[in-house]
Amino acid sequence: ALESLKLIKDMRSDFNKEKDSHIIDAEDAEVVREVQ
Fold first, then answer.
1. Taking the model in full, what pTM does it have?
2. CA separation (Å) from 32 to 10, 19, 20, 21, 36?
3. Mean pLDDT (10-residue bins), the chain, 36 residues
């Protein structure tokens, strides 16, 4: 049970990392548009 819980936590953290990177990319794109 503990191992599967750890797996779920790892998957969640990976998912959050990807989500955060997408959000950062979107914000960077906005900044680039304003600068240009």
1. 0.38
2. 33, 20, 18, 16, 6
3. 83 74 71 75
